[in-house]
Amino acid sequence: MKKKSFFLVIIVFLLALIIPVTHAKAANDNYLQKVKDKGTLVVGTSADYPPYEFTAKENGKTKYVGLDISLAEKFAKDIGVKLEVKNMNFDSLLVALETHKIDMVIAGMNPTPERQKSVSFSKIYYTGDQYMLINKKDAAHFRKIKDFKGKTIGAQTGSLQYSLVKQQMKGNDVKGLAKLNDLVIALQSQKVNAVAMEEATAKAFAENNRNLKVIDPGFDIDASQTGSAIGFSKGADSLVNAANKTIDEVKKDNLINKEYIPAAAKNMTTNGKKNSMLNYWTYFAKGIEYTLIITVVSVFFGFVLGTLFALMRLSRNKLTHGLAVSYIEFVRGTPLMVQVMFVYFGIGAVIQSLPALIAGIIAVSLNSAAYVAEVIRSGIESIPAGQTEASRSLGLSQKETYRYIIIPQALKNIWPALGNEFVTLIKESSIVSIIGVTDIMYQMQLVQSATYKGVIPIFIAMIIYFIMTFGLSKVLGYFEGKMKHA
Question: Which of 8, 278, 338, 464 has the fewest CB atoms nearer than 10 Å to its CB?
Answer without folding.
Answer: 278
